[in-house]
Structures are given as C-alpha cells and as structure tokens.
Amino acid sequence: MPPKKRSRLGRHTAAAAAKKAKRSAINASAVAAQRASEDPQQRATRLATNAAVASYDAASTASDGPETRSKRSAIKASAVAAQRASEDPQQRATPLATNAAATAASTFSTHSHDSDQQRSTFQRNSRRRDTKANAEQNDLQYLDLSKLCALFYSVIL
C-alpha cells in the first residue's frame, strides 16, 4: 500500500514550521552580523538598555500595587545608567548599569509588600499601626537607592 498522504492541515503545519525555522535562521544570522560589526559604544548602549529594561521588568513584577517612591527611584537610576552608558566611549558605565539594574531588582524582591501575606493577622495589624516605623523603613530604602545613584555619578564623572 502506498504511504498515506498528509492532510491539508498537516501540510500547512509543516510548511508553517519550515517557514518559521527559515525566518529564525535569517534573523539569527542578521543579529550575529550586526553584533559583529557594532562598535564598543553601540555595544555599551545595547547592554545598558537591556539592563534598564530588566530592571523595569523586575520592578513591575515585584510590586503589583501602587508605584512606590523606591520603585520610581530605581527606574530612574536604571534609565540614568543606560543614558550614561550610551555616552561613555570607554565602556565604564556598562558594568555599572548592570549593577544598578541588579540592585534595583534585589531591592524590590526583598522589600516587596507581598511579604505581608506571609505574616499572621496580628503581625500585619501591629505593623500597620506603627506608621512612623513604616515611614522610616521606606526612607531607608529610598536612601539606599540614593546612595547607589550618588556612587554611580561619582564613578562616571
């Protein structure tokens, strides 16, 4: 018996998969060629932009509630890092931008407000009553990010 022909749907799926594989290979080779020909400043800009995007994504996922002051500060710090890296021909800013993004992401993961859900009701209520302590804690987080920005500026300039 001759082999069974593929159905129309099967042929379409195979053709679509082949087309997608071809497109992916073309895109991969184009990206490889572009990266091989980029100069150090373009590379620094690309890496710093990726770090800023990663920082923003980490900030967004870590804090689902309203935007906090520390979240805004970290996003601004990563944006400044990306800008400085794009202006820095010696690539000093690229590792600093990556560190700023990592610090911002770790700040949100350790100080996330979702950790309240893991505490007992008594602990949550006690914590909420002590608003002054909460305000001081938020200020400390803000100061840590401010110190990071100040350190970043001092190294760059």
TrEMBL record:
<protein>
    <recommendedName>
        <fullName>STPR domain-containing protein</fullName>
    </recommendedName>
</protein>
<feature type="compositionally biased region" description="Low complexity">
    <location>
        <begin position="93"/>
        <end position="110"/>
    </location>
</feature>
<feature type="compositionally biased region" description="Low complexity">
    <location>
        <begin position="14"/>
        <end position="30"/>
    </location>
</feature>
<dbReference type="Pfam" id="PF21107">
    <property type="entry name" value="STPRs"/>
</dbReference>
<dbReference type="InterPro" id="IPR048998">
    <property type="entry name" value="STPR"/>
</dbReference>
<feature type="compositionally biased region" description="Basic residues">
    <location>
        <begin position="1"/>
        <end position="11"/>
    </location>
</feature>
<feature type="compositionally biased region" description="Low complexity">
    <location>
        <begin position="48"/>
        <end position="64"/>
    </location>
</feature>
<feature type="domain" description="STPR">
    <location>
        <begin position="20"/>
        <end position="93"/>
    </location>
</feature>
<feature type="region of interest" description="Disordered">
    <location>
        <begin position="1"/>
        <end position="133"/>
    </location>
</feature>
